[in-house]
């Protein structure tokens, strides 16, 4: 395991930027150890919801955690975050694409260069679930 601290500047898509950072390290799998910052736009899929809730106001990222999977056509990342609005309302759920950094996002990743994460259908849950494989060769 190797750690990678990252600061994302304004305008970056949080999820896409983290996936790109992992891939730039010739890695396919990572965990988010810590994440804080601010967003101008957020997409959070609340528990049980089919579609993300979209917010367009200044928000603070209180926590960010999950798995980052880089490479392939279909994203296999799975991150959760808690955010607070300007009024102090706190929401949490799945990080959807389109979470745009307002001033900064400071994230610490744990890179796992010997592993690859994918998501595949799981008959027991009915969802695409994490599949962890040893990475064969370094593509």
Detailed description of the structure:
- By secondary structure, the chain is mostly beta strands.
- It has one helix spanning 14-24, and strands spanning 2-8, 29-45, 53-55, 59-69, 78-84, 90-95, 100-111, 115-121, 128-134.
- Strand 5 and strand 6 (90-95) form a beta hairpin.
- The longest helix is centred in the first third of the chain and has 11 residues, at 14-24.
Sequence of secondary-structure elements: EHEEEEEEEE
The number of helical elements comes to 1
Proportion of strand residues: over 45%
CA-CA gap between termini: 18 Å
Largest sheet: 7 strands, antiparallel
Uncertain spans, ≥5 residues at pLDDT below 50? none
Indicate the percent of residues in helices.
under 10%
Quick synopsis:
With 139 residues, the protein is mainly beta.
Keywords:
seven-stranded antiparallel beta sheet; 139 residues; 8% helix; mainly beta
What layout of secondary structure does this protein have?
Layout lengths: L1 E7 L5 H11 L4 E17 L7 E3 L3 E11 L8 E7 L5 E6 L4 E12 L3 E7 L6 E7 L5
């Amino acid at each position: 395991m190797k750690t990678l601290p990252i600061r994302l500047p304004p305008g970056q898509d949080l999820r896409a930027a983290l996936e790109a950072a992992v891939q730039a390290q010739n890695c396919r799998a990572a965990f988010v150890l810590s994440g804080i910052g601010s967003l101008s736009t957020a997409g959070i899929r609340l528990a049980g919801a089919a579609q993300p809730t979209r917010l367009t106001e200044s928000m603070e990222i209180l926590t960010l955690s999950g798995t980052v999977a880089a490479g392939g056509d279909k994203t296999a990342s799975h991150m959760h975050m808690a955010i607070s609005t300007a009024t102090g309302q706190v929401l949490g759920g799945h990080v959807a694409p389109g979470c745009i950094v307002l001033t900064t996002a400071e994230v610490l990743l744990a890179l796992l260069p010997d592993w690859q994460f994918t998501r595949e259908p799981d008959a027991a849950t009915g969802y695409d679930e994490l599949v962890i494989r040893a990475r064969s060769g370094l593509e």
